[in-house]
Design brief:
By secondary structure, this protein is an alpha/beta fold. The protein is built from 13 helices and 24 strands. The termini are far apart.
Length: about 525
């Protein structure tokens, strides 16, 4: 029997890998634009109210001849981004070199990022234990949310866009029935799958949404229960290792077009593309887009991230952007920074976080109420709070809303890079009462070159429950602000006795500002 000998020749050919790029065009020549057919009526209303140009060139469409010529030279085209006058493409290096030669191409940037959902997984039985009932009550009362609820201020008429990794069961979950009944879900879009359906995938978005506007029977999970919503799926979720900023960029244009007043983003980008030095508020694409959204009248609320106990440590983008209301997390038990909450400032020393809220909460998951934690859930609590403030002050610009929410923090005017200005307080927006101001909780005395900070007797080792609900318990905050206007150091000191804190004045440079805060009282001292 003859044997056949088969010889296999293995031919090795060089293979060029596809990568994703952002191609920026030089102009929008030939573009025509009608804002009245492009924008939702609420977007038109917002622009007119705040004197924003209806014919801003950033809103004009991209030149489709440029898009077509680019598409013919690459493997595929992704998102078209009007604000940046750019398209995303898949291409190999030879193809992208050809694209760079086009006279209408200004710049080409490689994009390869990893999205971080700012959450730490932790769940319990859906039947809440007593201690979990306390968390549910505290997550709103810590902001004095009952004042808004009792005055029937629940964000009516405010439109909030939520960017996340999916919203499973939101179309059936009883915690959102009150929104569905009144047609409060205005539009939805999945920027990953390029379709309208978003009610599947990662439950992170469901839980985030509940912290803005959820209700369980008569119990409020979030404050803005009468707001309107735009739901955008921008990320794959925990199991997808790489997810690009392009979906966030496309979603922010979509939110603007559809009349959003507020955007909540419990997402961010860190070490897969950026260095900590680039968390400067204007380097990342999403920080640029967020700042532009604010100029167009939208408040952007973003989680600072959960990198506080990791090597990264610092905030994530776009929470680094100057105009973004960046939200840190506090622990419901200790009442100060929860261990994982990322630290500020941004790399240009601008204050971050701006404010904080509970970083461990009760949220509505796919199967019921769960305990979960992460700055992902502090951010929507503040977004709901901001919606209530805006509904009371409808003429506020985005930055006026930013500023007034920040100044309502219970540490203000004290701040640090763990808590910002503290937890916003609803009482700052209510009518003034005749209740007398509380006794000053401490005093600052200068004596022979030494500053003494002494807590008054009635504020030492207090166990008063109402005081616990509205303060950082028995901790004295103080910071050292240098002449450049940023903090050299900041401290949190537990007050367990009337023993004063002593500081030697000569240890500090002239022009240094020392600021102390304890139990709703702040004293500022400048070294002369």
């Amino acid at each position: 029997m003859k044997r056949l000998l088969f010889v296999f020749a293995i031919l090795y050919l060089p293979v060029q890998c596809q990568e994703k790029y952002l191609v920026f065009f030089s102009d929008k020549n030939g573009s025509t634009f009608n804002p009245y057919t492009y924008f939702d009526s609420k977007a038109i209303e917002r622009r007119i109210k705040h004197g924003i140009n209806l014919y801003d060139s950033t809103d004009f469409p991209i030149n489709q001849n440029y898009v077509a010529k680019t598409q013919n030279s690459v493997d595929s085209i992704g998102k078209q981004l009007r604000w940046f006058n750019a398209v995303t493409v898949f291409a190999n290096t030879n193809q992208i070199d050809e694209v760079k030669k086009f006279s209408f191409v200004r710049e080409v940037v490689s994009i390869h990022t990893q999205a971080q959902l700012s959450t730490v997984e932790e769940s319990y039985n859906t039947v809440l234990k007593v201690e979990h009932e306390k968390i549910l009550q505290r997550q709103l009362n810590r902001m004095q949310g009952d004042l808004f609820i009792n005055s029937n201020n629940t964000g009516k008429g405010i439109r909030i866009a939520v960017f996340d990794a999916g919203f499973p069961t939101v179309d059936t979950n009883p915690c959102f029935e009150h929104i569905r009944k009144r047609g409060g879900f205005i539009k939805t879009y999945d920027f990953v799958k390029n379709r309208d359906f978003v009610y599947s995938y990662n439950q992170h978005g469901t839980m985030v949404l509940s912290c803005i506007a959820g209700k369980s029977n008569t119990k409020y999970i979030g404050l803005a229960t009468e707001a309107e919503f735009l739901l955008a799926r921008t990320e794959y979720g925990h199991r997808e290792p790489f997810s690009e900023e392009e979906n966030w960029l496309a979603a922010v244009e979509w939110a603007d077009k559809n009349g959003a007043d507020i955007i909540n983003s419990s997402l961010g980008y860190t070490n897969k593309r950026y260095f900590t030095t680039e968390m400067d508020g204007h380097t990342s694409l999403v920080s640029k887009a967020a700042n532009l959204a604010v100029k167009k009248g939208i408040l952007v609320v973003n989680a600072v991230g959960n990198e506080g106990s990791d090597n990264w440590k610092t905030i994530i983008t776009p929470s680094d952007a100057d105009s973004v209301l960046a939200v840190g997390g506090i622990d419901p038990d200790t009442d100060y920074r929860i261990s994982f909450s990322s630290f500020g400032p941004n790399s240009e020393k601008k204050i971050k976080p701006n404010v904080c809220a509970l970083g461990k909460v009760i949220a509505a998951g796919k199967k019921g109420l769960e305990v979960t934690q992460g700055t992902s859930f502090a951010s929507p609590l503040i977004a709901g709070f901001a919606a209530c403030v805006l509904s009371m002050n409808k003429n506020f610009t985005a930055m006026q809303l930013f500023d007034t929410v920040q100044k309502s923090g219970d540490l203000y005017p004290y701040f640090d890079y763990a808590h910002g200005y503290g937890v916003p307080q609803a009482e700052k927006f209510m009518q003034k009462s005749n209740t007398p101001l509380p006794t000053e909780s401490f005093e600052l005395i200068e004596n022979n070159g030494v500053l003494e900070v002494t807590v008054n007797d009635s504020y030492v080792n207090t166990t008063n429950e109402s005081r616990k609900e509205n303060s950082y318990q028995n901790h004295l905050f103080y910071h050292i602000e240098n002449k450049a206007g940023y903090l050299s150091k900041y401290y949190l000191i537990k007050v367990s006795s009337k023993q004063p804190v002593r500081l030697v004045i000569s240890d500090f440079e002239v022009g240094t500002t020392l600021r102390f805060h304890y139990q709703k009282h702040t004293i500022t001292y400048t070294i002369k």
